[in-house]
Amino acid sequence: MHIMLAQAKDASVIHNVMLHAFKEYEHATLPSSALRHLWGIEEGRDSKLTIVGYHKESKTVHPILVDGWTIGLGGPVNGADAHTPSNVKIPKPGGWAILLYINESYFDTLIYDINE
């Protein structure tokens, strides 16, 4: 399965948020060492990142983080305003809108086409 970024509101704002290719599909999970970097966040440290996945074909909403919907963010690192290590899971192939919220406020949407 390959994850391709079809479009993003501002690709320069978000770096390394689920841009990976999986060799096998079976509820693929990113390695635990994956570090997400985010730019354009004023709050930074002590903020919360919520990731909501919308599957286009089934019209269903799914948590994308392995451990639920929301994860805490750490402060600046590697030039980014905030960061977090996390595992994500894409439940099935197809078109996905990945909605990102910082402290319950809309931040960005990433569009992916997940193919086996």
Q: Can you offer a commentary on this structure?
A:
The structure is a single chain. This protein is mostly beta strands and 116 residues long. The protein has one domain: Immunoglobulin-like (Sandwich). The chain has strands at 2-8, 14-15, 35-38, 48-55, 60-63, 70-72, 82-85, 94-102, 105-115. The strands form two sheets. Strands 1, 4, 5, 6, 8 and 9 form a six-stranded antiparallel beta sheet that branches. Strands 2-3-7 form a three-stranded antiparallel beta sheet, with no helix packed on it. Strand 8 (94-102) and strand 9 (105-115) form a beta hairpin. The protein starts with a strand and ends with a strand.
List the helices and strands and how they pair.
Layout: E1 2-8, E2 14-15, E3 35-38, E4 48-55, E5 60-63, E6 70-72, E7 82-85, E8 94-102, E9 105-115
Antiparallel strand pairs: 1-9, 2-3, 3-7, 4-5, 4-6, 4-8, 8-9
Structural key phrases:
Immunoglobulin-like; elongated; disordered N terminus; 0% helix; six-stranded antiparallel β-sheet; 9 strands; 116 residues
| Count of helical stretches | 0
Classified by CATH, the class is Mainly Beta
Coarse morphology: elongated
Q: Specify the biggest β-sheet.
A: 6 strands, antiparallel
Order of H and E elements: EEEEEEEEE
CATH topology: Immunoglobulin-like
Tell how many strands the DSSP assignment holds.
Answer: 9
Helix content: under 10%
Low-confidence residue ranges = 1-33
- End-to-end separation in angstroms reads 4 Å
